[in-house]
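All the exercises in this workshop are built on plain-text protein records. Sequence and backbone structure share a record, each on its own labelled line. The structure tokens are whole numbers drawn from a learned vocabulary of backbone shapes. The record below serves as our worked example for the rest of this section.
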Amino acid sequence: MNAIGYIRVSTDEQAREGISLENQREKIAAYCSLNDMVLLDTIHDDGISAKNLNRDGVQVLIDMVKQGKVDAVIVYKLDRLSRSVKDTISLIELFDKHKVAFHSIVDHIDTKTATGRFFLHIMSSLAQMERELIGERTKDALSHKIGKGERVGHVPFGYSLGSNGKTLVENPREQEAISIIKNLHKKGLTYRAICRELQAKTYQAKHGKWHPQKVKNIIDYQVRRAI
């Protein structure tokens, strides 16, 4: 039986024990050896989340399945393949259509058995729930930092970084521009029209020239601060 392995890490998981690409690669190779499978290759996505299937590695995997090049797909853990129930089921249906078995080592899933298919649905639901919980916690943490006036990522328009390298302090000139943006937005002007007004009044953008997306980002940030 010819098998293809798939491994993945997202940026925040690379340093976690048991999640590294090399660890996953070794586990898959050992699994294939124990189960008399010929491991043709191990496809990887490095530093990419599993929230959707827009990943180069997954697309290569899908093409190989469609071309009938493999008999089995092996992953170290189900959430390496996907954290979306919808996407997981879609992939498994594709595998079934082309008579390709799916194995998840840690989860003890083998879709050639009824029990394996049952646990697949349970584990994919748990993976999606975990992703959604992480998203909620991250959103809450960022909102809390924004509410306290702390830096989140790059220094936003309207502010400069304080001497402690953490706290944001208001930039008077940019705060003037924000007031103008908010007033013009309330009057119904388009983002492009607001850009023209800012340029006419010689207000400088944080980086480069004014364009509609920059104006939108400023408005969105102000809304988040107000929550």
Observations:
- Residues 114-147 form the longest helix (34 residues).
- The first strand starts at residue 2 and ends at 9.
- The chain has eight helices and seven strands.
